[in-house]
Design the sequence.
């Protein structure tokens, strides 16, 4: 254990996050690059990550919920801080009071925000979201046409950007990308001339056709590969380590963990670490993947339980109780961990629990 009694530690490299942002900004010369810090900066601590990005020069930030924006607003003086999930009824005054910008994606949201602007006697900032193929949020084609036909609908609004969201940008050859590009251009042609926000993390790597006035990367900032199938151009950000609680010798045929989903094919050693699905170490890791100790791979065997995970340490005689093993880090990238668990790096990071001893490295 550590001095505070924790059994696992999570280190977040803020310098790497800043460097990733600078790298993405260099790839997007057509306009600024925002920092998407929703879901507590993908589970890594928005109150630490957002100020680090601000110090690097980032001046555009996105969250999913108003509560997330309010938690970091005091740390981002003068920055545009926008909420992707729109303007919930009754929240209008709070958005305006705290200088938080809604991303408007329905006629009702536009009408309520414009009504508050008239009531306050000043223009209120907003982003306009149009749907080009995700079919989740944003104005659909009929709503956009109705908006374009009503010259008064946007009065009182200071529209900073019109935006859409790419659905398949991590797959460059997917025809959905070109289709969304065409639809976004057509949608923008119906609107007054406005700055555009298009590319997400992977979209930045689709080339100049997908450049715009504001890119909105999230995952790439945190070390997730925006170019799957190719070398990761981003620096790793996260290191998750756990201490070995116990080592035991087992005989061939001995079962490990709940429901005997793994049995030892030979005599060996099992290392138990104090991390489980209550810590966001997903149950789907069961019998998949490995940890790393001093360059050696320790296969994960048996079911991940609420508080414990077991590793096959048979081929690592140097491992001792009290040693630290790496679950995520330079030797075990987050995308590799995700692949073993049958998910993506987004879920791995946003699932990380609160029992880890967290450290933010400047």
Sequence:
């Amino acid at each position: 254990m550590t001095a505070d009694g924790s059994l696992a530690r999570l280190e977040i490299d803020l310098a790497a996050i800043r460097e990733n942002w600078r790298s993405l900004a260099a790839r997007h010369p057509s306009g600024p690059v925002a920092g998407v810090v929703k879901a507590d900066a993908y589970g890594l601590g928005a109150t630490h990550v957002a100020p680090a990005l601000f110090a690097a020069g980032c001046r555009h930030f996105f969250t999913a919920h108003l509560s997330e924006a309010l938690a970091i607003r005091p740390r981002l003086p003068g920055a545009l801080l926008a909420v992707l999930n729109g303007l919930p009824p009754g929240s209008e005054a709070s958005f305006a009071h705290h200088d938080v910008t809604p991303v408007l994606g329905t006629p009702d949201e536009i009408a309520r925000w414009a009504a508050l602007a008239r009531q306050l006697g000043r223009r209120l900032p907003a982003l306009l979201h149009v749907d080009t193929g995700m079919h989740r949020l944003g104005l659909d084609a009929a709503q956009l046409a109705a908006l374009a036909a009503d010259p008064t609908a946007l009065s009182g609004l200071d529209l900073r950007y019109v935006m859409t969201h790419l659905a398949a940008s991590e797959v460059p050859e997917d025809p959905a990308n070109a289709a969304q590009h065409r639809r976004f251009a057509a949608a923008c042609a119906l609107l007054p001339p406005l700055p555009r926000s298009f590319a997400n993390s992977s979209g930045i790597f689709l080339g100049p056709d997908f450049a715009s006035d504001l890119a909105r990367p999230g995952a790439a900032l945190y070390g997730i590969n925006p170019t799957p199938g190719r070398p990761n151009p981003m620096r790793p950000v996260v290191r998750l380590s756990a201490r070995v609680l116990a080592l035991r010798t087992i005989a061939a045929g001995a079962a490990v963990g709940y429901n005997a989903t793994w049995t030892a094919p030979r005599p060996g050693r099992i290392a138990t670490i104090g991390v489980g699905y209550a810590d966001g170490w997903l149950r789907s890791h069961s019998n998949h993947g490995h940890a790393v100790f001093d360059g050696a791979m320790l296969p994960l065997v048996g079911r991940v339980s609420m508080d414990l995970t077991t590793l096959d340490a048979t081929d690592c005689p140097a491992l001792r109780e009290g040693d630290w093993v790496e679950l995520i880090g330079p030797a075990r990238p987050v995308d590799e961990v995700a692949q073993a668990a049958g998910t993506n790096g987004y879920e791995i990071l946003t699932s990380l629990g609160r029992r880890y001893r967290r450290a933010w490295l400047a």
